[in-house]
Amino acid sequence: MKNLALAVVILTTITACKTENELKNSNAIAVTYPETKTVDSVDTYFGEQVKDPYRWLEDDRSEETGEWVKAQNQVTGDYLANIPYRQALKDRLEEIWNYEKVGAPFVEGDYTYFYKNDGLQNQSVIYRKKNNQDKEEVFLDPNTFSSDGTVSLGAISFSKNGKTLAYSISEGGSDWRKVIIMDTETKEQIEDTLVDVKFSGISWKNNEGFYYSSYDKPKGSELSAKTDQHKLFYHKLGTPQKQDQLIYGGTPEEKHRYVGGNVTEDGKYLFIYPRTSTSGSKLLMQDLSKPNSKIVTILDDFNSDSSVIENVGSTLYIITNKNAPNQKVVTVDASNPSPEHWKDFIPETENVLSVSTSSGYIFARYMVDAVSQVKQYDYDGKLVREIELPGVGSAGGFGGKKEDKTIYYSFSNYITPSTIYTLNPKTGVSEVYKKPEIKYNPDNFESKQVFYNSKDGTKIPMIISYKKGIELNGKNPTILYSYGGFNISLTPSFSIANAVWMEQGGVYAVPNIRGGGEYGKKWHDAGTQLKKQNVFDDFIAAAEYLIDNNYTSSDYLAIRGGSNGGLLVGATMTQRPDLVKVAIPAVGVLDMLRYHTFTSGAGWAYDYGTSEDNKEMFEYLKGYSPVHNVREGVEYPATMITTGDHDDRVVPAHSFKFAAELQSKQTGTNPTLIRIETDAGHGAGTPVSKTIEQYADIFGFTLYNMGYKVLPNKTKAKIKG
To answer: N or C: which end of the chain has fewer CB within 10 A?
Structure first.
């Protein structure tokens, strides 16, 4: 402990190659880093020894790691404090952020509920009003959970009659949750708090109790220790948690990393979804209308993803990608639910399908080159109409109860703030319900979709957004953002922060690269395991397109991504350090040889494979793992790694080790910083105040390292460092 305390005050400068006069005449800020100790840690994979000199940073509970975090944050804070327009960015972010945000209403029992944020509240508040009345009241205010907004509201779920609410909270951004049960009439807590709940929904069985999921609390650190046997429980109201019934996951045969459960709206069926990874699920069913009924297996393999979206009596409606990579809807009777009895209801098309139900209809939401198209079907499979959307962008919602008379949906794109619409399901007529009053004019901006070829010739779509009238001279500050994994699709959505970026003349570009779900399972699989390099190649080709078409140049290009997107940034900057000026990897998966040893990381093996699978997989992972591919004598882009000290999904050790590698090997004057948010996790529930600070730091760091001494919208003069 004492050795590290001494070590953190020993500073090594990366600017020794420049004199003070040279530094004053450039945009560079002299940076000194804490000296990070190394240890003799070696792992052997298939006969090959791999050093892991910063293994000690994996211990999130140690005093040494805590001191290192403090020292790094001091260096980063000092650097950011020298950026002259950091406060101006924060002020503008606060100004544009400060507008009322209201969510779509939903009816539970005798009340209509909705979320609302007055503007800069750290967490949105749940309001309610008596049905058919106008007077509203605060129902649940998460801002009262903690003084600094770091305790956030997670899932909420009402009993069938709406008289009881179960809601989860997260402390410090952790994925570990507590569940609180309250009487909705009195707004009083009525039972002891449920603890140690993780990766869980809350699904009620009528008014009697609810199902939830969790792991046994791990030995060692709850923020980093491995968790791999998920269990589904039933909590009966009025009983202590220790008496909760274990429904599934308690035996070696039932060992899965994720187990979810949900009950149909009529309370008749429970469906259980065991998974060993983030892709592929079994499907099990229990008839709750029959006492002590057995759990029936519908699908017993992990070769597809299938989930029940609705039932009408014993007829089940299932969305599946089994023999349908772009997904389809099938029906089957619950008495014989196995796949050989499935009948196509909404057949597969060339576009990826997702579905929701409301008002006695099924809404088929398609992605057409990452843009929304919505069709309305009745329960006989008849197409009622295609919904006329307000424009080209992303439509979400269209979900509710069967008895709902009005349907709500939202629409936005990269330049249009999210607006809520009502839809009359009988006539198909949409009307504006809530349009935000924001100090931002979307008419000043434009988005365009382009297609470019990746390294292997695959055509990739990309949406580029910017202020109207920018000159394509190769000198526009540009952020290239993407994700590329886990079947997640990046569809157009509005971001207050990106609006501020574009106000500064910035370009914001989002390519829909392989590994995502924009073109179905085949698109996803084309970016997994031994094909993961396709993802990086697609991203690199997007950067080259922007440069070749004079949107920007390497001196004015930043790359950004979070989680799996943090891996994307880390791999891109280590493979092509010459390509971009700034790199912002957030909460990234950066140690590809050990990611599966932390928390639920082994569940990501469908996308990544693991270093223990076989020699070929080990060598492939080692070949792109950012932590293992930082080289001596290379000038890497100006880098600011961001993470949270309570991130128990992608543990911060990934970011810690990557920062240590870069700081020890970086050549030249580009800074390599790490910004470690305290009492913060993977991102969900982050207070608005912290989010604004993060963006002010990210944009300030990015622009400053592109050579801007003042904000771009103040002057076009730039000084190269």
So the answer is: N
Q: In angstroms, rounded to a whole number, what is the distance separating the alpha carbons of residues 654 and 58?
A: 8
User: What distance in Å separates the CA atoms of residue 76 and residue 297, rounded to the nearest whole number?
Assistant: 53
pTM above 0.85, yes or no: yes
Which token pair is 477? Answer: 């500050």
Helix residue ranges, H only, 302-347 = none
Instruction: Return the structure tokens found at 353.
Output: 């399908």
Nearest to 274 by CA among 293, 287, 255: 255
Interval 91-103 mean pLDDT: 95
Q: How many residues does the chain have?
A: 721
Q: At what angle do helices 688-705 and 86-97 cross, to 10 degrees?
A: 140
The answer to whether the CB of 177 falls within 8 A of the CB of 152 is no
Q: What domains can be seen in the chain, in order of their start residue?
A: 69-94+441-709 (3.40.50.1820)
**Rounded Cα gap, residues 110 and 130, in angstroms:** 6
Measured CA to CA, the distance from residue 154 to residue 200 in angstroms comes to 10
CB within 8 A of 51, min separation 6: which ones?
A: 41, 42
Query: What's residue 146's pLDDT?
Result: 85
Per-residue pLDDT for 681 more than 70?
no
- Would you place residue 347 in the very low, low, confident or very high pLDDT band (cuts 50, 70, 90)? very high
Are 451 and 464 in contact by the 8 Å Cβ rule? The answer is no
> And the tokens for 484?
């590329």
Q: Determine the 3-state secondary structure of 603 from DSSP.
A: helix
Residue 19 has pLDDT above 50, yes or no: no
User: Rounded to an integer, what distance in angstroms lies between the CA atom of residue 568 and that of residue 497?
Assistant: 21
Burial of 473 (0-12, 13-18, 19+ CB in 10 A): exposed
Task: State mean pLDDT over 297-314.
Answer: 94
Read off the pLDDT band of 61 (50, 70, 90).
confident
Q: What is the pLDDT of residue 646?
A: 57
Number of other residues whose CB lies within 10 A of the CB of residue 241: 16
Residue showing tokens 């008749």: 268
Distant-in-sequence, close-in-space partners of 21: CB < 8 Å, separation ≥ 6: none
Instruction: Report the C-alpha gap between 663 and 82 in whole angstroms.
Output: 20
In angstroms, the first-to-last Cα distance of the chain is 39
Give 250's pLDDT tier (boundaries 50, 70, 90). confident
For residue 582, what are the CA distances in angstroms to 14, 94, 101, 387? Answer: 17, 24, 32, 42
Which 3 state secondary structure label does DSSP give 3?
helix
Residues annotated as part of the active site: 563, 682
**What are the residue ranges of helices labelled H in 495-629?**
496-503, 521-525, 533-548, 564-575, 605-608, 615-624
pLDDT mean across residues, the chain: 90
How far is Cα 176 from Cα 261, in angstroms, rounded to an integer?
A: 18
Question: What 8-state DSSP symbol labels residue 634?
Answer: B
Mapping DSSP to helix (H, G, I), strand (E, B) and coil, where does residue 385 land? strand
Spatial contact of 642 and 694, defined as CB atoms under 8 Å apart? yes
Q: Which residue shows structure tokens 């790694």?
A: 641
pLDDT digits (tens, 9 = 90+) for 426-448: 999 999 999 999 999 999 999 99
Give the pLDDT band (50/70/90) at residue 679.
Answer: low
C-alpha distances in Å from residue 95, one per residue of 438, 523, 536, 691? 9, 40, 36, 14
Amino acid (1-letter code) at residue 227: T
The helix/strand/coil state of 199 is coil
In sequence order, the β-bridge partners of residue 582 are 558, 638
